[in-house]
Amino acid sequence: MSKESNKKISAAPSWLGLTQNRSSFVYLPDRAETVRKIFQLAIGGMGSYAIANYLDEEKVPTFTGSLNWDNTTIDSMLRNRATYGEYQPKSFAAGHKKGIPSGPPIAGYYPAVIDKATFDTAQAARQQNLAHRGRKGNDLANIFGGLCSCAYCGGEVIFHRISNVQVLVCEQVLNDSACSRSAWTYKDFEATVLAFLAHPALLDKMGEEQRTSLLGLAEEINSLSSDGDRRYTRRVNITVLLKQIVNSLIVHSAGNFSLPRHSSAQIRKDMDGRFVEIQLRDGPYYRCISIN
What we know:
This protein is an alpha+beta fold. The protein has 9 helices and 12 strands. Helix content is 35%, strand content 17%. Strands 5-9-11-12 form a 4-stranded mixed beta sheet. A 4-stranded mixed beta sheet has the order 6-7-8-10. The chain has a two-stranded antiparallel sheet with strand order 1-2. Strand 6 and strand 7 (165-170) form a beta hairpin.
């Protein structure tokens, strides 16, 4: 094979560089780590606006030299199959500025910065995020997105506002189904769950890998109230860690009362006896009761 045929294309993805003779790609370590972090945040349920805000707050340098991260850059990166090594040849004939596919994609062309499984998981998370947060979902009002389900009907428990009060409520209730017609004030739910997960006694029941993740989560939780300047960043970190540690949260917003109420009944908030079952990944269920 000739020397010319061994050469790569003249450009590389923004997290890769080219050797001086353009014969191979090389990692740009800091940028590669940023790409991995962006995928981790997306899998954790963060939208592109929220990811951009997080990177700006953490003062992570952009790849273009601009002062701030742009959500369209984040979206493009999360869709880019070059992240797991795939290259799609394109033709720029007939004035196509962005090019059109020319031939099948080439696997393993670039050094992969993530694996295909991570890419696919991020795509699924992004679809769920768009479905439930809207395009700008960047306020991090609910750090439990996608984790909560209703103990009574199995439906998804979602973030909602009732008379300007933030609550978690079964989606079926909002669809005019009866279910339990009960809701859990979000502030109380978050405090209850995070206090449980940050408790030192929980660490004794965990394996080494899970213990490390829980220690990181506990550190972020315990710093929330004292580190106001980085509160947004810490809530982002908690959101990501929750997805790594918690498999599901089964919400009993009406306690042991499981009979459906009439579909026109008022939604009651913070009923006595409410509790949540917490399923840790590779771990048992724990019952966590709110203290009124």
